## 1
Amino acid sequence: MAEIGYTMLCEQTPARQLVEDVARAERAGFGYAVISDHYFPWLEEMGHSAYAWSVLGAAAQVTERLPLMTYVTCPIMRYHPAVVAQKAATMGVLSQGRFTLGLGAGENLNEHVVGHGWPPVNTRHRMFREAIEVIMALFEGGYQNYTGEFFDLDSAKLFDLPKLPVPLAIAASGDDSGDIAALYGDALVATEPDAALVAHFVANGGRDKPVYGQLPISYDRDPQAALDRAHRLWRWSVGGWKVMAELPAPVNFAAYAKTVRPGDLRETIPCGADVDAVVAAVRRYTAAGFTHVALVQIGADHQQEFFEWSEKELLPALAEV
């Protein structure tokens, strides 16, 4: 069975609670924790979108053993890659080597806010390659210069570096981004249990590297209440990555999801308190070659009940598989 992680979901949870929740996740027995890095939530109903890097600094101080990871940070528009490298190196120091930098080519939802438009996907991938090269150069230490099509470095140096370089986990959704992940990444990140994507990654240089996935669940002793909550807060997700990457604002996600019915979520989101349903959903990832699966409990107001259930029932069941 995969290593089971916990997701700090900035888009649904107040910042202070995110820090309290990750400490509780460590006590419950989760194997690692990831955090989303957004400017907007997908839907207005979600209600939050704290700055992930401030939360990460606090998370590093309230946890002792839990590996931490961005899931994922986009280094091509809202952040310059030199600044991402500095933030990641600082997190490597603060966490004493427990941090992995998850990187992706981003979503219009979060990147358009700086007013530079939203490039087509082939351009974004060229930008992404350059950004990764900038980050990797700065992780090597010393003064670095870089001249690219999209990004430049002028005698830049990181003065606070962890003892070991921060690992890079690269998000991919197809062969082109899969090639980027295989070339530059220490791990692959994917949003769906896509065996073909994992196989492509492995065949092109990713053999024996970790593969990270994410599974939304809606825990509640009342299955109907769980399904209703999933529909209210997670209906935006049915379109897949090609839709999610292009829509510019929460209102657009809401409009897109108008025709989504609660029943449309049953196949992808375990709802209720059925441990076997979650185990079966995790198996879909492991069967596709995933080594790590981070759970997302939908609904900020139900985290504590989720932790109690996970500690007593869910995590022991997953460990026995």
## 2
Amino acid sequence: MNAGLQDLSLLDVAIAALLVIVNGAISVALSLGLERKLAIAAVRTVVQLLLIGYVLGWVFAFDRWYAVLPLTILMTVIAGLSGAQRGARTYTGQRVDSVMAIWASSWVVSAIALFVVIRIHPWYSPHYAIPILGMILGNTLTGVSLGVERMTEELTSRRDRIEMALALGATRWEAVQEPARQAVRAGMIPTLNQMAVVGIVSLPGMMTGQVLAGQSPVQAVRYQIVIMFLIAASSALGTVGAVLLAWRRLFSAEHRFLVARLVERSAR
């Protein structure tokens, strides 16, 4: 029997929101100093989700490509800018690199999903295009931010060895191969960990949502398998792209390490 999805009242949401007090209590008990950040994060969560809920309601009802496309572009740009906020060090152009890496990888993989795998018609159907791109963007953002953070840390800690290798005749790529490998590995690990326990330890959001909405568990599982593989591909491509873009900015064509471009985020 399909009972459908149970509607939640504002009171139900408020009761769930009170659980954030647990986080605040832990912060106070352990003197973590996270109370203000928790409060801001909780308010942002409510405001942002309510806002996107109303926006998506309008986009779904309007159902035109010129309504869907601007929203997906905005989502991508915000993801790219957010991906450049992590880490103690940064460099000029990191935001542009982050947007480019996330945009290229996420949109290519999403296009494969919409045109080749799911084959929806029309291609801009907001019920498919926006949720799929959103899930891919969120995970690609994590991979890119972790990868670039690890890249800048590795370059800083290995500076002497890198400069020595360059002085001995190594090319800029030969000198940076190991830091680049470590950065790509760091960016891919969260997705690999998620894939290792999916369906056993955790039930992913898309699958849970479909089951709650009354979809067949078998079909929900198939969709989730597709999404996991899409996320894995986009995260890997985005991380590699971001690391390579950082490498090109921090090493000149004359095979010199432009270490002065790496600055402390607080100093900047």
## 3
Amino acid sequence: MNAHSLGSAKVSRLLRMGLLLAIVCQWPAWADTPPDCAAPASTACYFAFTLPGSALGRMHFYASRVPGAGTPTAALVAVHGHPRDANKTFNAALKAVQHSGALDRSLVVAPFFQVSEADAAPCHTAGVPGAQDGDLLWTCASWMAGGQARNAAGLTSFAALDALVVELHQQWPSLQTVTIAGFSAGAQMVQHAIGFAAVPPAPITLRYVVADPGTWLYFDPVWPAATVAACPEVQRWKYGTEDLPTDLGRSATEARTHYAQADIHYLEGALDSSDAPGTFYKILDKSCAAMAQGPYRMQRGLAYTEYDRKLLAPGKQRRVTTVPGCAHDVACVFAAPEARSALLGN
């Protein structure tokens, strides 16, 4: 089953069945009262849902509310970076909402792309639960580029993100806006996923925030001939749309159109512009295709915004907000006052 056809009647029926199973079997049973989830990430507020399809699997997420509780109208979905630090990312997003005074009408969620225990050492963060039987599994790198789950053929990480949006709407029908915000590798994943995202269930409106990714997806052949000759990878997936994986469900032209029409906001840490401590320069992609985009993350972000405004979506005139005093740190960038407009809207 194609996970991008989530709007079909058949998948909707399967989804409802899967969600019923999740509600009955996967939410923790509290002896007394449900936990206060508007607090730092904890296992008490670490929930799961079952994705629909021929090969069912489970995905976990931290949430600021017990599933089904309250009537939030806006959700902030914060996607973790390469260390899969969903707990830290959740805490940063929660602070942004708390500092804005929007907690009473908001839901904060941090999904977790799980990796098997045998493969997780290079991308593990303390305090985040390990893989459990039935979890969907990716590798440390595959989830960032829309790769298929290793134990669910045909189910990409982009489709899993689509399914999460549907799940949130099922659990909180009051939701009207869902903002998907990624930081670092999570921003790379989100930026790539935008062009391939499924249409959300009504009445959900999707917004996106791309914060400090290492590299960007260009939809047009913008590079000089000499650059392409020396480094043909600049035009290939994941830096360009040549050799586009067919399981993403859209052509390069369709993905470009979808991206150009989306509601997207860009954030960059103002100090994420060198090899100084705090920029995590050692882990920055320095392949020829990446270096063609710029020497450091902020420069790459500024260059992409210029491309966006001039060629990709000139009618949108999207801008990048530079967050003063922040290097490559989600806790600094997301919690900063300058980031609130992007993360929370008006």
